[in-house]
Amino acid sequence: xxxxxxxxxxxxxxxxxxxxxxxxxxxxxxxxxxxxxxxxxxxxxxxxxxxxxxxxxxxxxxxxxxxxxxxxxxxxxxxxxxxxxxxxxxxxxxxxxxxxxxxxxxxxxxxxxxxxxxxxxxxxxxxxxxxxxxxxxxxxxxxxxxxxxxxxxxxxxxxxxxxxxxxxxxxxxxxxxxxxxxxxxxxxxxxxxxxxxxxxxxxxxxxxxxxxxxxxxxxxxxxxxxxxxxxxxxxxxxxxxxxxxxxxxxxxxxxxxxxxxxxxxxxxxxxxxxxxxxxxxxxxxxxxxxxxxxxxxxxxxxxxxxxxxxxxxxxxxxxxxxxxxxxxxxxxxxxxxxxxxxxxxxxxxxxxxxxxxxxxxxxxxxxxxxxxxxxxxxxxxxxxxxxxxxxxxxxxxxxxxxxxxxxxxxxxxxxxxxxxxxxxxxxxxxxxxxxxxxxxxxxxxxxxxxxxxxxxxxxxxxxxxxxxxxxxxxxxxxxxxxxxxxxxxxxxxxxxxxxxxxxxxxxxxxxxxxxxxxxxxxxxxxxxxxxxxxxxxxxxxxxxxxxxxxxxxxxxxxxxxxxxxxxxxxxxxxxxxxxxxxxxxxxxxxxxxxxxxxxxxxxxxxxxxxxxxxxxxxxxxxxxxxxxxxxxxxxxxx
Length: 638
What we know:
This protein is mainly β and about 650 residues long. It is built from 2 helices and 41 strands. The two termini are about 15 Å apart.
């Protein structure tokens, strides 16, 4: 998405302006675009899914030299519909190397901007509000968090593309205008590590994935907009447990999604607008464990129609209301020696909600809402879901939020063997022994989670990046598992540390010798990525025995008897990655060759463990993740 905004440091004159703040004004160049922006920013006429921004700019003069005075350009990028700051919007001055990225509050800073008139351009991938608990009544079906992503609007001005090629993968993205009414964009990606570096590494699983998407946007007039999108992707894993054994037993697993959607945006009046969606998606997975000849197939189809309307009663009051109707088709099949399971279910979900938002001052936002769900499965569930939150903005970059709500999740992930999880819809059948329904196939229980997280982020200077830490503790309580004692699920991680940083080597060298740094990005940059988290919990077997389908069967299978569920953990996971990139600018395009090393310390991070009985006694074998892995690649932008 591209939007141009004109700012100047000239003294105020009789020239007409539509926004003035602290001596910075936006002139009426490119009148059509700017008038539309002003109207939407002032009245909130358009949803952010249409790419409407409201930008507040502050320009602070700072003398850099007697010949060329400069200033720091800073401000906020807001969603015109609800006043929330946009995360990750790229704000830059076209034709220069000056730019920045908005933080979690929509704030950005561009240093060393020369005094004069400039064009300010914003690119963004869409509104990405992220809520970890305490989300509004518009959302349900999740207990923990919601990430709402709207698609990237393609370049409406000219053809544009990016491509990347390395020893591990290739990808490309293309964008183009569709006359004067819209844009078309598409991306494809494919990994081929298994055919390149993977051939030279022992005990590495055969894994690859591909995906692609296409999107089209149409602005028929000021009141009607249409967005169409499609996506498809699939992962393939072929793993042999012991390459040295005569019996090459292992597992094969492939899974993927296909989605399509149509969104119509309509402006009814200056105070009322709406979005309506028709969406369809399909998730399929196919798992085969060769040792024991066990297969699992899972298929979920989702057809949804929903609508969201927003009405601005005044500057301080906003209401939202909407509906959602889902049609699921769920199939689960499992086969094993002497066992065959097939489950089919076609539940329907009907939902309606209403939200009221009160902003008594620019610092306070109070929101209340109510959602009502009806799930018709093999039984009918009716649930009220009240929501309330209060947020106070402490400063330009910090805010405090308290929230309360009741949330319902009907689509459930059931942890399965290794990576092959199972997805099912809530129903009443859990406790009776039949094979054509979910009775007695899955266990029902409770869970609890507590956590804390913090993040530090630096957007400007020689070194930029962020550092994050999170603590979480999740426990399950199932009467039929672990003798009724609480246990940690497989995904529990007590501590997680993430560091991502980039250093401008040219400016770092200048700063080291006390010289003034230059504005914008230099030619050479060093990237650092570090990850640490607590090891995954797993269940240690206490004993094992041989079983067969019947007493006369020749084939026997090893059955392990567990100790306490997930009572020990793998060693902690840790990985350091480094990259060196060189940027070369040409007229109309750029090239960025790079060298990258994954897992610089060659740490053997345990993926899973396998008990091998080749010699008649159990032999613990650890399967590790990626080892020390160098690669070369190049990025193109045109």
